[in-house]
Amino acid sequence: MERKFIEYDFGRVDSERMRLNVGPQHPSTHGVLRLEIELEGEIVTDVIPHIGYLHRCFEKYCEQMQYPQVIPYIDRLDYIASMNNEWPFVMGVEKMMNIQVPERVEYIRVIFAELNRIANHQIAVATFGMDAGAFTPFLYLFRDREMILNLFEHTSGARLLYNYFWVGGLAHDVPPNFKDTALNIIKTVRATNEEVMRLLMGNKIFVERTVKVGILPADVAINFACSGPVLRGSGVEWDLRKAQPYSIYDRFDFNVCVGSNEIGVIGDSWNRNIVRMNEMEQSCRIIEQAIAQMPNEGDVREKFPKKVRPPKGEIYCSAENPKGELGFYLVADGGNKPFRLKSRPTSFVNLAVLPEICKGYMVADLILILGSIDIVLGEVDR
Amino acid sequence: MLVQEIYDNLKEKFPEAVLEFIGTATGDPSTVVDAGQIYNICKYLRDQDGLEFDYLALLSGMDYKDKFGTVYHLYSLKYKHRFVIKTYLPKEDPSLPSVERIWKTANWHEREAYDMFGIKFENHPNMIRILCPYDWEGYPLRKDYVGQETYHGVRIPV
Amino acid sequence: MLEALFYIFAAMIIGSAAVTAFTKNILYAAFALLFTFFGVAAIYVLLSADFLAISQIMIYIGGILVLIIFGVMLTTNVSIVDIKEGFTGKTSFIIAGIFSAITCIFFIYLAFKMPFINHAPKDVKLPNDSTIKPLGKLLMTNYLLAFEVASVVLLIAIIGAAMIARRHDD
Amino acid sequence: MGNFVFDLIGKNIVAALVICIIPLVFILPYALIAILGELKIGAWMQDRVGPMRTGWKGVLQPVAEVVKLLQKEDITPTIANKPLFNLAPFIVFIGAFAAFAVLPFSEKFIPSGINLGLFFVFAVGSFAVIGIVMGGWASNNKYSLLGAMRSVAQIISYELPAGMVFLSIATIAGTLDMQTIILNQSGPIWNWYIFGGPQGGAIKFLFIPFFVILFIVYLISSLAETNRTPFDIPEGESEIVAGYHTEYSGMKFAMFFMAEYANMYVVSAIIVILFLGGWSSPFGTSFMDGPIWGIFWMVGKAFFFVFVQIWLRWTLPRLRVDQLMYLGWKVLLPLSIACFMAIAFLAMIN
């Protein structure tokens, strides 16, 4: 077959500038992302992200699958925060079918979602540190993440792709020592976070590297529909858990962390990460409260519908994922398969802002800015 | 503000362009508008005091079997209200104005809708495929899509 | 043994200098200079001029050669320019040949007329001690003016380079 | 003073060859130990066990890695400039190895006791620059070129503060010869230059702050000259993949690797010679002193600084290019010049 010539205009090419392909095989693109960057010396003048290397037709598959079968596919979107991913989908289907899940299920869901948020932020901060050349905090944070994954494994049987939140309940009940384990995890997480704050976030070199790098003003962030720590790092107090409380988040006392001018400038790479660090602490607080309030007895599977067959209609259900707002626009035609399931992929939307904020910085900064946005290519490409 | 009030406000401002209000028993109500007017309507929704939909959460392309469509999910961070707009497009050569100049985030969403459904967005700065390879044939999320058999000489498993 | 070393290094100098002169790739020429400079430094060592030898390495290899390579590399696509371009016709070839022949003969004549070749003592005893002390003394006494003037020239060069390299847009 | 090889077999060509080979014989096991140290110290700092499978507690891991590198396919990219691509690792290694010519190991062994030791070390550093540019350019890879350019800019910039440190020590010692510099510091521990040098009296205490500053300046510049963290910008793996040796594999990569480790030893040894008394014993001339103990002290002290480099690598993040240049030109250079002038002044009034 003859190879077609692909025409696309990426603007004027200046002969004195150098075009550099960062990725798809590059140590710090966090997956198979290809950035076509234009350099003037070491200054980045343009960035064109090319995505889709991991595209696997998620939405097309969903149209062929029955509702419960969709959940494992959803796990594979943002495979670092699978628990959180499943939530908006099952919540959407439950809303369509008018299922009120038991209290105990809600509490377990909150605890797991928050634990997974901690795990995700640990990876985000760790890999961000590694982008800056600090390797040791990476392993400290991964050591703690291991505990969270072990708990998930004991509960759901899987370490990464859990398939745990089901429509109307949960796949399994929690293990007997669940509460103690979770409290123990919180204790360790807090201790390590304190250490990481000193070792990494407060490190003079690290601060110099990340402060005033990749400044994302609040209005630009909103215009690009950024969400999660990227938006909150720019000082916008927007957290779906507070703004549109879903599930039982209105019962907990926690703060929405936003960036500040304290060390960096609002919206810079350092602030995006300090938001993540602070959110881990808030998640710990939520988990503590949830464990204290959680009912001990109750069946987590009693509300399973016999047939998952939402009535004709459509719903957009979103939840605050670690990376931002993950939503599913679900169109049901009354059958047992979704007519259309469109996801609002957080990383996809957040990545779109990258070309906007990294012009004029150096190559090394570009890598840091990319790291501070915290993308997962599984979600970008779907 | 309630969805109904926003709809009334919009209907008053654009009597011809706003076509229909779909309220469902379950799920979100939505408003169908004329595809050709989508840019003006969105601009109004963003800039009008009291509405200020500054956040485009999601732009999806749709294939309703007999027609195509686009769906816009809007938030207002200030007033914390949401609104859903829909457009319907003909089967042949679907195209409508781009809202990229209103919400930059629409850039990639519209490219995705083009990539998956072949819906063309006018005035879009860079209307090329985004997820599929640039020389892919067909629009995969259309209901009547039949995949390529080979791509650059490589057989595609079904 | 020293003589054998001398001939090895001399061959290296001439060979690499020939590469510098005749290669069509500018970068090869620049890198061949490395061996020329290094060979010259080695000859200095054989002459017991240790300070000179190390200065040769430092200034010529560490300074000038790096500068040349940078200049070649950072100038867009110079490394693929065909040097033969602009070489027009036989006339220039003949003129260049005549000039080089004259220069060559002149230098050979000069070499045999120079007093330091004809009148040098045959069995010169190379100094075993370092040359750094006498050099330093001479530079600070007899040749102080020349030394200082050289530094002024270098200063002017640095300031000029800084002026040229400065961005003019602000 | 002198050279034990010459004492043993006389001043002939065999002796000269033996002297040339001794540092090479030193570098190979040293590199293995340093690699093991890098792995194990990293593991220890990061709360893990590190390699455990090869040999007892994994001590043979570096050997396995060297064997792996030897067996690896030697890939030369088709669009690379082959002669220069193949030559570059050797030139880089020559640069590192040449410095060993003037590094004393003991009072009885220095490969070449020339009077210009410090100057020589300073000069042969430029070989590495040429080799790195050669490798980076010949790879025909943009990452390599970026890495090479960064590396050269970095090494040249940090040679200046290092040179000022050398000058200060030369001023106070009155020589550029390594052995004499060490001999000046022999005796009790407070004769070391970091503690103010051999001169006595109250003026010694005026010297100490300047020497400490110079010591820190040289420690920082040495990290930059060997491309170690936090100055590993030329090979910053998260930005430019591996910098100038992106395209190298197998033995040629091993040469670059070995050159880096050899350089680590060279700069550590120079720190020890300039500030910490070289091979002289910290207990004065009476205890644990002598040619054999000299080797122990020299290598032991140098290994401590190799350890410091490894330690920093696993602790600190990486700087950015402009910050690196800022530090080199606007902080270290003025600081070292000021210290040099102060020391020259103090030496004059002393």
β content of chain A, as a range?
Answer: 5-15%
| Spatial gap, N to C terminus of chain D | 28 Å
Order of helices and strands of chain A: EEEHHHHHEEHHHHHHEEEHHHH
Largest β sheet strand count, sense and barrel closure of chain A: 3 strands, antiparallel
Q: Structural class given helices, strands, pairing of chain D?
A: mainly alpha
Question: Could you explain the architecture of this structure?
Answer:
The complex is a heterotetramer of chains A (382), B (158), C (170) and D (350). With 382 residues, chain A is α+β, with helices and mostly antiparallel strands. Chain A is globular and about 65 Å long. Chain C folds into two domains: 129 residues, Four Helix Bundle (Hemerythrin (Met), subunit A); 40 residues. Chain C is mostly helical and 170 residues long. Chain C is built from seven helices and no strands. By secondary structure, chain D is mostly helical. Chain D has one domain. Chain D is globular and about 65 Å long. The two termini of chain D are 28 Å apart. At the A-B interface, helix 3, helix 8, strand 6, strand 7 and strand 8 of A face strand 3 and helix 3 of B.
Core attributes:
heterotetramer, B: alpha/beta, Beta Polymerase, domain 2, 5-stranded mixed beta sheet, two-stranded parallel ribbon, 3 helices, 21% helix, elongated, C: mainly alpha, Four Helix Bundle (Hemerythrin (Met), subunit A), 2 domains, 0% strand
Helices and strands, with pairings:
The complex is a heterotetramer of chains A (382), B (158), C (170) and D (350).
Chain A (H helix, E strand, L loop, with lengths): L17 E5 L11 E7 L2 E8 L7 H7 L2 H9 L6 H16 L5 H29 L4 H21 L8 E2 L2 E2 L7 H24 L2 H7 L7 H6 L5 H5 L6 H4 L25 H25 L19 E8 L4 E8 L7 E5 L1 H6 L2 H4 L5 H11 L3 H5 L1
Antiparallel strand pairs in A: 1-2, 2-3, 4-5, 6-7, 7-8
Chain B lengths: L2 H11 L4 E5 L7 E4 L4 H10 L7 E9 L4 E8 L6 E8 L5 E3 L8 H12 L2 E3 L27 E2 L2 E2 L3
Parallel strand pairs in B: 2-5, 6-7
Antiparallel strand pairs in B: 1-2, 3-4, 4-5, 8-9
Chain C lengths: L1 H21 L3 H21 L3 H25 L14 H25 L1 H4 L13 H9 L3 H22 L5
